[in-house]
Structure formats: structure tokens, C-alpha cells
Design goal:
This protein has 355 residues and is an alpha/beta fold. The chain has 2 domains: 217 residues, 3-Layer(aba) Sandwich (Rossmann fold), CATH 3.40.50.150; 115 residues, no CATH class. It is built from 11 helices and 13 strands. The chain has a 7-stranded mixed sheet, sandwiched between helices. The protein has a 4-stranded antiparallel sheet with strand order 11-10-12-13, with no helix packed on it. A two-stranded antiparallel sheet has the order 8-9. The longest helix has 12 residues.
Length: 355
């Protein structure tokens, strides 16, 4: 592992970026304000500074950070929320330009925002301009792409090669068609998007090499029963028992016909077990992510362990807090397979510096 502190993770969350980095032999230090999320990170062994990213000074990290990661809170822009961030986009663009000109107008702009959290999307640029890390990786919901494109333009003016775009996590081995805006930047090498490892339906071998396997499905990751867990979150008694990587079809064959339903409207997304999950949105929609029979009859809610596996975590990941908070952390986390894929093209330069 490289030295802790060489990679700084803003809005660190429960450990999606951390798990993605560890697959590449790297550790980071995260800044996270939520005490429940910090408890999850501590239980999982991730180094954390409990603080507000917007208030924390950059000076302690100068000359010590070779990589910068950031996943600003998505709630202002998420399709699962009120999308107040859309009203605040002009203020966020102004904040980015002001920081690039050496003017810190965040306090004034935040006071004008419909949702003060909207302006957190400018924080990675503040840290980047102050710390000048060798590489940067940012992730957010697709609606934030225009702000990432603006950030990339400003980074290019100070010597970074940049790439921005939308990546589908299913193309990188996650059993979920989760689309996310990504910004990659590097001072030491061209910033390029990662090469997909999977494809919808797979691709055939050709003269240039082996084809890609098809997207992984929910059945691929939820059907192997190595051990048993209790479905009721962090309760110690009661609840149904089922294999850690599979719902109850390991007990009854009828469950092979189950579908995962996300949402409570007539047009709610439904996916079969032989398909990837749709984007898992929790928060207010927690009760609307459920298994149903082929005829639409409700069976039971999605279990925490199942949600974790569908998001790319191990089923035994030590989520802290209530069942609701555990689901919120899972839904907000960067999927580790997507994190690993995004970081792989950037990391060699950082490892050479940190060695």
C-alpha cells in the first residue's frame, strides 16, 4: 500500500472510493461530516477526518497529496430528490469561475442558493487549485455533467489533461445499470476514459482480441449461498434468514421468477433476475425497492445485504446506523467496481510519485 494521506477523498462516504482504491493497492484519507457514515468507515478500516469539506482548510495537505477524489452530495441534483440544484446551476458556475480567478465567493453564493448543498460541487476545484495534485477523479449524478465540464475547462487552463463523460457501471462489472457523470484529470499523462470490461449482450472475439462478456445480472451475484444472514438490517433477533449473496430463491425455486421493482408508480422499473438491477435509489423511495412475483404480487423488500452486493460491496460490509441509514449509504456510495475502473488509467502516475 502507498502511504496514507497521498490520496485525499472529499465527501468520502461509506467507502466506495476506498474499496475501489484498495483493489489497486492504494489507501486514502477521507473527509466526511456525517457521524453515521464515519462510523461505517471506521468499522471498515478507512482513515477519516470528521469535518465539513467546505469549511476545512487546504493548507494542512499542501505538498502531501498526489491524488484527489470527490463525490459531492448528489441530493440537490438527483432524480430521487427535488432537483433544487437545477435552480442553482448558474450560481455554481459563478462559484467555479470566481475560484479560478482567485476570489472566494462561496459564502455569498451559498446564501442565495435554493439548496445550500448545491454549491458543494465547487469544492473539488478549490482543493485542486490549492493543492495541485497529480490526478483528480470526480463522480456525480448525470445532471452535474455541465458543472464537471466547466471544472475540467478551468483545470485545463492550469496544466491538466481532462476527460468528462457519462459512464454506465454495468460496463465495468456492476450488476446495475447505474449511469454517473465522471471527471478525470491528470498533470502527468493524458486523461482517458477507462476501457469497458463488459457490454450489453457481450461482444464477439475479433482480430484485435477477445470480446467482452455480457453485463453481469442480479442472478449472477445473488445466487451463491456461502453463508447465512438476517434480513433485518442491524437487528440481532428476528427476521428471515437467507444466503448472504442470494435472496430466498435458494430456499424456494419459485423465486426464480422474481423481479426487482424500483418505485411505486404503475410505470415503475422492473428487472428480472437475469438482468442487471436498475439504478438503486433509496432515501424517500426506500420502501419502494422490493421483490415482486411475475404477476406483480409483493414478496418482500430488498435486504440490506442484497443492496450492498448489487452496489459492488461485500454482503458483510459493516454498515452503521438504522436500516434506513444503511440503505441511504449504499445508494449514495460510489460502486467500487466503477471507482476501480475510473482510477486505473490515472493511478500509475500517482504511484510513481508516492513510491
Amino acid at each position: 500500500m502507498t502511504a496514507i494521506g497521498r490520496v485525499l477523498d472529499l465527501f468520502a462516504g461509506p467507502g466506495g472510493w476506498s474499496r475501489g482504491l484498495s483493489a489497486l493497492g492504494v489507501r486514502e484519507v477521507g473527509i466526511e461530516i456525517d457521524p453515521v457514515v464515519c462510523a461505517t468507515r471506521a468499522a471498515a478500516g478507512h482513515t477519516t477526518i470528521r469535518a465539513d469539506v467546505a469549511d476545512y482548510p487546504t493548507a494542512p495537505f499542501r505538498g502531501k497529496v498526489s491524488g484527489l477524489i470527490g463525490s459531492p452530495p448528489c441530493q440537490p441534483y438527483s432524480a430521487a430528490g427535488l432537483r433544487a440544484g437545477n435552480d442553482d446551476l448558474p450560481l455554481c458556475h459563478q462559484g467555479l469561475d470566481d475560484l479560478a480567478r482567485g476570489r472566494d465567493t462561496r459564502a455569498q453564493l451559498r446564501a442565495t442558493c435554493t439548496d445550500p448543498r448545491s454549491l458543494l460541487v465547487v469544492e473539488p476545484l478549490r482543493y485542486a487549485l490549492d493543492l495541485r495534485p497529480d490526478w483528480i477523479a470526480l463522480e456525480e449524478v448525470p445532471a452535474v455533467l455541465p458543472l464537471f465540464e466547466h471544472t475540467a475547462h478551468l483545470l485545463s487552463q492550469v496544466g491538466y489533461s481532462t476527460w468528462t463523460g457519462i459512464l454506465n457501471a454495468a460496463d465495468f462489472g456492476l450488476p446495475q445499470t447505474r449511469r454517473r457523470a465522471i471527471l478525470l484529470a491528470s498533470r502527468t499523462r493524458p486523461a482517458l476514459p477507462p476501457n469497458p470490461t463488459h457490454a450489453d449482450g457481450g461482444t464477439a472475439d475479433d482480430l484485435f482480441g477477445a470480446g467482452l462478456p455480457p453485463w453481469r445480472t442480479m442472478g449472477d451475484v445473488l445466487s451463491c449461498p456461502p453463508s447465512v444472514v438476517v434480513t433485518r438490517g442491524n437487528h440481532t433477533t428476528g427476521g428471515s434468514r437467507f444466503p448472504t449473496t442470494g435472496p430466498s430463491w435458494a430456499i424456494t425455486g419459485r423465486a426464480r421468477s422474481w423481479l426487482l421493482k424500483v418505485g411505486n408508480r404503475p410505470a415503475a422499473t422492473r428487472r428480472r433476475l437475469d438482468q442487471p438491477a436498475p439504478t438503486l435509489l433509496f432515501g424517500k423511495a426506500l420502501n419502494d425497492v422490493s421483490w415482486i412475483d411475475a404477476d406483480g404480487t409483493p414478496v418482500r423488500r430488498l435486504a440490506v445485504e442484497e443492496a450492498a452486493v448489487l452496489q459492488g460491496f461485500v454482503p458483510t460490509y459493516p454498515w452503521a446506523g438504522s436500516r434506513t441509514r444503511q440503505f441511504q449509504q449504499i445508494g449514495n456510495a460510489v460502486p467500487p467496481p466503477l471507482a476501480t475502473a475510473a482510477l486505473r488509467p490515472l493511478l500509475p502516475a500517482a504511484l510513481e510519485v508516492a513510491a
